[in-house]
């Protein structure tokens, strides 16, 4: 086979966001659009690409298979030595991270728009991960974007054909050099990795009912996303769960029309079913398998911020942490600070990073971080460099097995020790971009005015006094790289916080995210929506959100 050089012209807007480039499928299918971006990923890595091993796969959404073929042809022409490709192009995001690490690959290309809907009229995405298995840092994504604004040509092997439906090794000769595509089982490596981390023997006895006499009553909902194949193997075959414990386990190109985002709005079917039925645990994942939602009996909701703190508290019941030790913890800035309290008690470092998993990687590589999470249903550890939905459910099952308690009792016990961070997030999706930019810049001016500090805001009989307010900036403790303007935050005297930022994962318009966090030492059994009402009113007042967006209510509340 021979490579060819194709002339092309740049496309605007190939700027990776919080987690890769995400656009409508129709944008990616424009002539040379995908080709340009893939060539820029390779070019951003310079000569290291020649002779390299890359992992390629995605969440199975519409256009994944076509994209795998394009990537293979371009990689072949650019001197990549070998690709590991998931069968049918299927690999969850955590599975790619694990494969990169286990195979000491140079990196990986992940095809997903995560929790965004799929199908011909919806979203697609491409993300590059580095040799540590984690999302490329800002320095690399900035370079990819710069290259995309000036690209003139890409290299491709037009005649390269691979059957990615068959497991096996395909060898080619390209420009006189060998090029190999190995199509691998999508789940095997990941499942083996989970077996090393958790005590599958104990979990089997707990889930199958050998320990307690009755099988665990679970409803694990893959929302027609990529986790289906992983969930069937792990929960049914390895842990002996009853067949009806898992639902929506066939990955579909359009996720069956579902919005594969595990939260109270888009996983409503799960929440309603668990609320009505007889279940000990309900769980859901997003399209690419890195997010998780955990609910208990009667659909008792575990906020992701609390989930992180509880796992931190019980880390020692997981063999991986007994073996490797417990380093520090971390959370993204908008995430409620429940885990900080566990860190304090255990004498561990706790880091606060900008939104997006890429900021955790350096700390993990430096041996300072073993567990981290985000309020956006992301939880994970240093076993890989992505958040990991199935891992989170296995962690929760380990805690349930270890304590013998229900999810609700585990949370109530946690709050009685540490106090409770009430938390909610309001999303205003698909707003007009310009007014949202104006809202953020106006609010930034307001809150960074020196007169703002010390101001008092009152609503529904509660008064909050401003302690500090800024646009969050972060200096990486390891490589000292700086990320500025990562979200507006107003912190009050009692530690309560309002955070406001624009989403970096949408494919059209703007999504405003408003995060409200309030800590109570003793009053821990209230209703979050009631407890947070005053602060929500104050946030709407300070931001003037209604005026700028024209919205009187959010599209999603969690
Ligand atoms: C959102 C979440 C963020 C998460 C990111 C990627 O980003 O808020 O916490 O890391 O999605 O998650 P944004 O910029 O839209 O707020 V996923 O599951 O898309 O890989
Ligand atoms: Co995701």
Automatic annotation (TrEMBL):
SUPFAM superfamilies: Phosphoglucomutase, C-terminal domain (SSF55957), Phosphoglucomutase, first 3 domains (SSF53738)
Composition bias type Polar residues, residue spans: 1-11
Name of this protein: phosphoglucomutase (alpha-D-glucose-1,6-bisphosphate-dependent)
Family: Belongs to the phosphohexose mutase family.
Enzyme Commission number, as recorded: 5.4.2.2
Organism name: Hermetia illucens
Keywords: Cytoplasm, Isomerase, Magnesium, Metal-binding, Phosphoprotein
Cofactor (UniProt): Mg(2+)
Cell location: Cytoplasm
Region (Disordered): 1-18
Pfam family, one: PGM_PMM_I
Record InterPro entries: A-D-PHexomutase_a/b/a-I, A-D-PHexomutase_a/b/a-I/II/III, A-D-PHexomutase_a/b/a-II, A-D-PHexomutase_a/b/a-III, A-D-PHexomutase_C_sf, A-D-PHexomutase_CS, Alpha-D-phosphohexomutase_SF, PGM
One Gene Ontology cellular component annotation held by this UniProt entry: cytosol
Gene Ontology molecular-function annotations: magnesium ion binding; phosphoglucomutase activity
Reaction it catalyzes: alpha-D-glucose 1-phosphate = alpha-D-glucose 6-phosphate
